[in-house]
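Module 6 notes. Inverse folding takes a fixed backbone as the condition and produces residue identities as the prediction. Think of it as a translation problem where the source language is geometry and the target language is the twenty amino acids. Below is one complete input and output pair. Work through it position by position during the lab.
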C-alpha cells in the first residue's frame, strides 16, 4: 500500500507534557486538557485520556464524512449521531494497539440506506483512511 500525497488545507498542532499523566494543549489555546490514565489502567481517571480524545475526533470527523456522502446521495441525515468506541489493549507483539467501533444513528432513512451511507462515509473519512489496514475498525448503522 503506497502513501498517497495530499494537498494540506489545515494543520493542527498540539503538545503533550508528561505523556498519559499530564496535559495536552493546542498551539492556539482552544484545547487545553488534563490527561490521566483511566481507572481501568490503574490511573486516577481524573482527566481525559488519549483514547477519549481519539474517539471524539474520529466521531466528529466521521459525522462530517457522513454529511458529505449524504449530500452526494441526497439523503436526509438530520438528527443523526455518530459514536466512536476506542479500545486500547495489548497486541501479540508485546506492544499496545487500538480497536475502533463506529456506530451511526440515522433516523430519517431506512436501515439499508443508513448502512450504505455509513460504508461510503468510511471510504471518505480521513480518520478511516488513516487507520485502514493498521487497526481493526468496524462501522455500522444503529
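Target side of the pair, the amino acids:
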Amino acid at each position: 500500500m503506497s502513501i498517497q500525497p495530499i494537498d494540506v488545507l489545515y494543520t493542527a498542532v498540539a503538545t503533550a507534557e508528561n505523556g498519559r499523566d499530564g496535559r495536552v494543549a493546542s498551539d492556539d489555546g482552544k484545547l487545553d486538557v488534563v490527561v490521566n490514565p483511566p481507572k481501568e489502567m490503574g490511573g486516577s481517571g481524573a482527566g481525559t485520556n488519549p483514547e477519549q480524545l481519539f474517539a471524539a475526533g474520529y466521531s466528529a470527523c466521521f459525522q462530517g464524512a457522513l454529511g458529505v456522502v449524504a449530500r452526494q446521495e441526497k439523503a436526509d441525515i438530520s438528527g443523526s449521531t455518530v459514536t466512536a468506541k476506542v479500545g486500547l489493549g495489548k497486541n501479540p507483539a508485546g506492544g499496545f494497539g487500538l480497536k475502533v467501533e463506529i456506530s451511526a444513528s440515522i433516523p430519517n432513512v431506512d436501515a439499508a440506506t443508513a448502512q450504505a451511507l455509513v460504508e461510503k462515509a468510511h471510504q471518505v473519512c480521513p480518520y478511516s483512511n488513516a487507520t485502514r489496514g493498521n487497526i481493526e475498525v468496524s462501522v455500522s448503522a444503529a
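Reference fact for the lab report: The helical segments are 50-73, 111-124, 126-131.
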